[in-house]
Every structure is written in C-alpha cells, then in structure tokens.
Design a protein that fits this description.
Elements (H helix, E strand, L loop, with lengths): L1 H10 L1 H4 L12 H12 L7 E4 L6 H13 L7 E5 L6 H13 L5 H5 L4 E6 L6 H13 L4 E7 L7 H4 L3 E4 L5 H14 L6 H11 L3 H12 L6 H8 L4 H12 L3 H14 L4 H14 L5 H16 L4 H17 L1
Helix pairs in contact: 3-4, 5-7, 9-10, 10-11, 10-12, 11-12, 13-14, 13-15, 13-17, 14-17, 15-16, 16-17
C-alpha cells in the first residue's frame, strides 16, 4: 500500500515537489521564522492555528513541523484529518479523542521530548458543537499531543480555540515566487516552457501554488508548457466559462445560466469557492453596470456559502439576483 502511495506522490508534481523542511517553504518568511523558533524548544511548543487562502503552504508547513520534530517515523505519531469530510462532533469524539488518549509517546521517546501531533485541515468547516468539543480535547490532550489547526477563514473558528493557539496568518504568494517555483519544477522535469505561460498560470490561480502546479503538469502532458497548452489544460476550470455564466445571468437568461453553472459544478467539479472567485474577477473585467450593487450581492452570497448554506441553492439564487440587477 505504501509503495502505491509513493508512486502516486511521484506522479503528482504537487506532492513530488512538496517541501520537506520549513526552510524550503515558498515565501511566508516571517511565519516560517516564527514557527522555526517555536519548534526549537519542543517542550514549550504551543498548539498552532494556520489561517489563509488555499494553496499558500499551510498544510505543507504543518507537515514540515511534524517531520522536523518527529524524524523519520513521524507518520506513526501524526493524525491527519480533513474536517470538511467529517464536520460533526462524532469525528472529534471518536477519532481525535481516541488519538489523544492513546499514549504512544512513552519511555525512550518521551525522554527525547517527542509527542503526538494532530493536523486538522479545513477546521473552519467544523460545526460549532464539534469545535466546542475540540476545545476540550485540546485542553485535556496537551500533555502528550499538539494540535495544528488549518483553516481558510479565521472568523469561522470559535474564540476559545483561537485563544488556545498561536495564530499564523498566511498570505497569498507573490507572482515572482510562484513563477520561480514553477520554473524550477519545469527544469527538473526537463519540460519546455514559456515565461508568459507561467505568468498566465499565476493569473488564473491567484497564487494558489497547488492549483498552479496541477495546471502546469496537465499542460506539460500535452508536450510543453506553452500558452496554448495552458489554456487547454485549464479548460472548463478557468475564468472564461464562468464569464459565460455571468453574461447569461446578466442578460436575464436564468435557465441557461443555471444549466451552465450546474455543468461546471457537477460535471467538471468546480467548487463554489472557485466559482465566486472567478465570477468576481471576470465581472470587473467586463466593466458591468452598477459595480457597487454587484459587490454587495457577491458579498452576501459569499457569506452565506461560508456559513454553510447549500451551495447549489445559493449559487442559483445568486444568478437570479444578477438577473434582477441587470433589469434595474
């Protein structure tokens, strides 16, 4: 099983070139410096909370912390969970509590100041009850466990958890750093590339490194990382198709707009977060009328989605509101 995972990691460039040391994490210099100082004193290492946009190094940094602290056998003493898969209190009671109560760090390992680490990704997707239960786990398990919570929206994490963690706010990666990293991967993989194609990838992803690498690998599979291949690789996941949905909605063609929206989300797997991001970017480039009212509508539905409302219902309602906006 492990051999298959290794093969998959080598096939996916986003995993193959994922940093293994804190010093190798792209950008986020001040954050890495602060975390490195905390890691030096193992006994006093606090729980940590990483917040910021997707693909900027939050999970990678958490894994680097685990590897540097626990050494070669780090996976034995690390529990990785994605809270968006199991949002409720059951996950906290069964999986987190069970891991914190398992006293696997004893004897020789305890003399080396080692402990277990729980990495909880997308923690902002957890329900309030689950977060409250998690707070109790954080308090009770501190003797042998350290928590690293990861989220996109810090405001969705309850205050009692925030106060028990050292918070690090990750920022979007600069254009130069992303392009330089993509260039490095192309050179190591011996893939031909165009500078403007790498810039095109950055513009499409907004600094999401994971998404950028995936697009570049798809383009490389077509022969080279050229502008034409990047455009083809982005395909229906890019802004252009979202722009078509917007144009239909703004022209009052609700049914057609909704049909294309469902095609994007259900057939091609575009997330509601990506749809909102691309729609916002595309709308301002279209120079739409009443941009202030458009911004208010987008903000309202972005908040509803972040609060956990049903994505399909909310995006359909968004299209209806845009149709009304155009008629004013």
């Amino acid at each position: 099983m492990s051999a298959k995972k290794t093969d998959l990691a080598n096939l996916m460039w986003s995993e193959k070139y994922r940093p293994k040391k804190l010093a190798d994490v792209v950008d986020q210099k001040e954050i890495i410096k602060g975390i490195s100082n905390l890691v030096k004193n193992r006994q006093e290492m606090p729980h940590m909370l990483f917040a910021g946009p997707a693909g900027v190094g939050k999970t990678t940094t958490a894994l680097c912390v685990a590897m540097e602290l626990l050494g070669e056998n780090w996976k034995v003493h690390v529990l990785e969970l994605n809270a968006s898969d199991e949002r409720g209190i059951k996950m906290v009671r069964e999986r987190v509590k069970g891991f914190t109560e398992w006293r696997g760090v004893t004897g020789e390992q305890q003399t080396k100041n080692l402990f277990k680490i729980i990495i909880l990704d997308e923690a902002d997707e957890m329900t309030s009850d689950a977060q409250t239960a998690l707070r109790a786990m954080i308090e009770k398990g501190s003797e042998v466990t350290r928590f690293i919570l990861i989220c996109n929206y810090l405001s969705q994490i309850i205050e009692p958890i925030q106060s028990r963690c050292v918070v690090f706010r990750f920022t979007r990666l600069p254009r130069e750093d992303v392009i330089e990293h993509l260039k490095m991967i192309c050179e190591k993989e011996k893939v031909k590339f165009e500078e403007k194609a790498l810039a095109q990838i950055f513009d499409a992803t907004g600094g999401d490194m994971r998404h950028s690498i995936n697009i570049m690998q798809a383009a490389a599979g077509m022969g080279s990382v050229s502008s034409a291949n990047v455009t083809a690789a982005m395909g229906l996941s890019g802004r252009a198709k979202v722009g078509e949905v917007l144009k239909l909605a703004l022209s009052g063609k609700f049914n057609e707009a909704r049909a294309k929206l469902l095609e994007l989300t259900q057939v091609y797997g575009m997330s509601e977060t990506d749809f909102m991001k691309y729609a916002n970017q595309e709308a301002y480039e279209m120079a739409i009328n009443k941009p202030d009212e458009f911004a208010a509508i987008m903000a309202e539905y972005d908040y509803r989605l972040a609060a956990g409302a049903h994505p399909e219902i909310q995006l359909s309602a968004l299209l209806a509101q845009l149709g009304k906006l155009a008629k004013k």
